[in-house]
Here is the input.
Amino acid sequence: MTGRLALAALAATSVGCAIPQGTAPTPYALLHSTRDPAQYRSANPRDVQAPPKEWPQASGEACRTMFWWLPNPPTPFLGSQTAASLLPYPSFDVAWGNAGYAKAVKVALESAGGGTLVDVRADVHTVSVLSVWRRECIEVHALVAK
Here is the structure.
């Protein structure tokens, strides 16, 4: 009876290794593109003392580009990531650019030609090709109160 119980416990603990992982999006996708909202508190148009009849608009963007080779080895089964992390797997990565929110707001202020940004909306746009090349941009759109 003890042998059957041990065998059942072993089968229950190793069943995770037989089920392939279903991660979305897979790190080995050919092309991956997303546009996600980012939250930021800003003044609303109703907060402006003397609102204009027509609101000027401003926008700014700050981007960062990354290149890495070789991406992490694939881990097709649950629990295999621990084993893969123990393998010597050299990788090389380079990143350049500034995808900061502050830089995107600064570019938007410069495009506004002075004034205060009102009703600020920010989006994060990501494009990845073969998980080797990746570009992330923060886009800021706002109304301008002079």
